[in-house]
Amino acid sequence: xxxxxxxxxxxxxxxxxxxxxxxxxxxxxxxxxxxxxxxxxxxxxxxxxxxxxxxxxxxxxxxxxxxxxxxxxxxxxxxxxxxxxxxxxxxxxxxxxxxxxxxxxxxxxxxxxxxxxxxxxxxxxxxxxxxxxxxxxxxxxxxxxxxxxxxxxxxxxxxxxx
Length: 162
Ligand code: PNS
Description:
Blueprint: E1 3-8, H1 15-25, E2 30-36, H2 47-57, E3 64-69, H3 73-79, E4 84-89, H4 92-108, E5 113-118, H5 128-136, H6 147-156
Parallel strand pairs: 1-2, 2-3, 4-5
Pfam families: CTP_transf_like (PF01467)
InterPro entries: Cyt_trans-like, PPAT, Rossmann-like_a/b/a_fold
Domain Cytidyltransferase-like: 5-133
């Protein structure tokens, strides 16, 4: 059985993430979405909130499981006996960080490889950070995140439901 992990912060999940999840889930028998718990970036959403949003967003994908992890990604992968990591590449600006991360992970555990999916052009500009910035100033985030996520983001900034 071919399995892979798509790791990330998902703070919050965006249409760009969902696109990568949908496409990569078709390439493998099982896809685990790994949600980082020990996040130094002080996430807006708790790990449980992020896991639950991802579960809702992927409920129609039969072979996708959402699991949080702490510590090193390669250790999480190894503990599930998974040797493939999936990351999305939006633009050249992502490349340097992603290359460093993939190479670091391979030094730590040479059995684990990272494969990259180019993000759907429709979502090439999209990031969770931008979603939060737009929402913070009461901007419209309906083009960026699923409907059920919208008010959860505004709520975090004390903005009344739309
Ligand atoms: O969505 P993000 O924030 O770009 O995802 C980054 C993530 C979670 C993949 C990365 O920070 C990670 O794997 N963190 C776990 C700690 C780790 O293994 N670090 C070594 C890789 S350089």
